[in-house]
Amino acid sequence: MRYLAFDLGAESGRAIIGTLADARLTLEEIYRFPNEPVRIPDGLHWDVLRLFHEMKEGLRRAAARYGTGLKSLAVDTWGVDFGLLGDKDILLANPYHYRDGRTRGVMEEAFKIVQREEIFSQTGIQFLPFNSLYQLLAWRQQHPDLLSQAQAFLMIPDLFNFFFTGIKAGEFTNATTTQMYNPRTGAWAADMLAKLGLPVNLLPAVNPPGTIVGQILPRVARETGTGEIPVIAPGSHDTASAVAAVPAAGPDYMYISCGTWSLVGTEVREPVINEQTLSLNFTNEGGVGGTFRLLKNVTGLWLVQECRRTWARRGENLSYSELTAMAREAKPLEAVVDPDHPSFLNPEDMPAAIQAYCRETGQPVPGTKGEIVRCALESLALKYRWVLEKLEDILGKKLPVVHMVGGGTQNELLCRFTAGATGRQVVAGPVEATAAGNLLVQAMAMGEIKNLVEAREIVRRSFVLKTYDPENTGAWEEKYEVFVKLVS
Ligand code: ADP
Ligand code: LRH
C-alpha cells in the first residue's frame, strides 16, 4: 500500500510517499519546501499557515500521481512547540519557535514553585529551557490575557491534523516531550500544572501513535483533488519516528538520531526515573509500540548548519559535502568543545562562538573553515562517547553497537569519528529514518504490518546500511580525557 508522510525538519519540510510491497519500503520524495522560522518584533515564530499551504501542495502532487492509491497521511516534526486555539477554534497567535529567547530564566522561576526533583519524578523528562512547560509559563508571564482566552493546546503536528481534519487530538510521543505529561499514570501531570498556575483544561486527550485522527475535510479534499483519506497520528515527534526505523535486530544498541540535534539513547520498556537519570539529565520520551526512549539531547549538526549559515551570509556558499571535505583535510584532534555549552544554543555567529570557547578553555583556536568544522564533528563524536558511558552505567549493561540514522549519516566523517570515539561498530542508515518511521506506523495503523519488530525487519530489508569499524582508538581515548574535563 501507499502512504504519505510529511516530515518537517529544521531546514526543510518534505512530502514523502512510501510504498510497501513484498515486505520492502520504497521512498519517493514528491515535494520539498522551506521551513524557516520567521522573526517579527515579538519573537521567532513558525509560519504555520504557509506550511499548511505547502503540505496541501504536497498532497495535491501525491494525489495527481497516485489518485486513490494513497491510503493515508501523517505529519511529524520536532517536539516541544505548540499552538493555542481560542473561541471557535481561532488560532490565537503564530506559534513560537523553541529557539526564541523568551523562555530564558523561566525554568529557574518554575523551580521556585515546584522543585526540579518533583518535576522530574512526575514527567521523567530532561530539563531543557525550551520545553513546552516553560514555553507555556512564558505565555502566562508575558501574555496572560491571550492565554486566558485559549481553549485548546495542540502540539504542532496535532495543529496540522486539526487543519486537515477539523479534529483536535493529542498524540503520546509528542505529549511526553512537553514535560507536562506523567508517563506512569498515562495522563497530563494535572497537579503539577495546577501548582504552576497553568490551565489544564486546554490539554487534549492523548492518543497512542498509530491512531486514525479522522478524514481530511471535504474542502481540503476538493482543493487537493484527493478522495477521502484518513489522517493518522504517527510517532508525531520526529525522533520517535526516527527511532521506530532504527534497523536494530536485538535490544542492546545505542542509537543516534542525527540531524539538527543528535538524540542519543536506547529503547526501554518502562521509563527510568531515578536520581541518576535526574542528575545526568536524561529523558524518557514516549516511543512507538509501548516503548520509551531513554536518551539525551546533544546539540548536533546545528553547529555545522549555523557555521554554514554564517559563512553564507558573508557571501561564501558552501555545501555540506564541501565543508566535510575541508574538515577531512584539517589536523585531527586539536581543540574540542562541549556541543551543549549554552553559548551554542543560538549564537549570532557560530564560528566565532566555537573559537571563543576554545580560546577561553586554553586550547588552540581553530582558524580555517576546515578546522572549525572538524572541531565540531570531533566534539560531537566525543559527546556521543560520553552519553554511551552514562547510558551503560544507568542500564548496567554494555551496548556493543551504535546505530546512526537521519540526514547526518550522510556525513561519513562524523560516522567514522563516532566509531573511533566510542570504540563501537557504527551501523549508519537510513538517511530518511524519520519519514520511514512515520510511514511504517501508518502501515501499522492500516493493519498492513503488525508491530515494531516487523517494521524494523522491513527497514533492514529496504535500505543499504553502511558499517564503520573503530579506528585510531588510542588518539580518541587521549582526547576524551581532555573532553571529559570540559563537560563536567
Ligand atoms: P533535521 O533534524 O533538521 O530533520 P536532517 O535529518 O535532515 O535534519 O539532517 C540534516 C543534516 O544532515 C544537515 O544539517 C547536514 O549537516 C547533514 N547533511 C545533509 N546532507 C549532507 C551531506 N551531503 N554531507 C554531509 N552532511 C550532510
Ligand atoms: C529533534 C527534536 C528533539 C527535540 C528538539 C526540539 O528534531 O525533536 O527530539 O528535543 O527537536
From TrEMBL:
<dbReference type="GO" id="GO:0004370">
    <property type="term" value="F:glycerol kinase activity"/>
</dbReference>
<keyword id="KW-0067">ATP-binding</keyword>
<dbReference type="GO" id="GO:0019301">
    <property type="term" value="P:rhamnose catabolic process"/>
</dbReference>
<feature type="domain" description="Carbohydrate kinase FGGY C-terminal">
    <location>
        <begin position="254"/>
        <end position="446"/>
    </location>
</feature>
<dbReference type="Pfam" id="PF02782">
    <property type="entry name" value="FGGY_C"/>
</dbReference>
<dbReference type="InterPro" id="IPR013449">
    <property type="entry name" value="Rhamnulokinase"/>
</dbReference>
<keyword id="KW-1015">Disulfide bond</keyword>
<dbReference type="GO" id="GO:0006071">
    <property type="term" value="P:glycerol metabolic process"/>
</dbReference>
<keyword id="KW-0418">Kinase</keyword>
<dbReference type="GO" id="GO:0008993">
    <property type="term" value="F:rhamnulokinase activity"/>
</dbReference>
<protein>
    <submittedName>
        <fullName>Rhamnulokinase</fullName>
        <ecNumber>2.7.1.5</ecNumber>
    </submittedName>
</protein>
<dbReference type="Pfam" id="PF00370">
    <property type="entry name" value="FGGY_N"/>
</dbReference>
<keyword id="KW-0547">Nucleotide-binding</keyword>
<dbReference type="InterPro" id="IPR018485">
    <property type="entry name" value="FGGY_C"/>
</dbReference>
<dbReference type="InterPro" id="IPR000577">
    <property type="entry name" value="Carb_kinase_FGGY"/>
</dbReference>
<keyword id="KW-0808">Transferase</keyword>
<dbReference type="GO" id="GO:0005524">
    <property type="term" value="F:ATP binding"/>
</dbReference>
<dbReference type="GO" id="GO:0005829">
    <property type="term" value="C:cytosol"/>
</dbReference>
<feature type="domain" description="Carbohydrate kinase FGGY N-terminal">
    <location>
        <begin position="3"/>
        <end position="243"/>
    </location>
</feature>
<dbReference type="InterPro" id="IPR018484">
    <property type="entry name" value="FGGY_N"/>
</dbReference>
<comment type="similarity">
    <text>Belongs to the FGGY kinase family.</text>
</comment>
<dbReference type="InterPro" id="IPR043129">
    <property type="entry name" value="ATPase_NBD"/>
</dbReference>
<keyword id="KW-0684">Rhamnose metabolism</keyword>
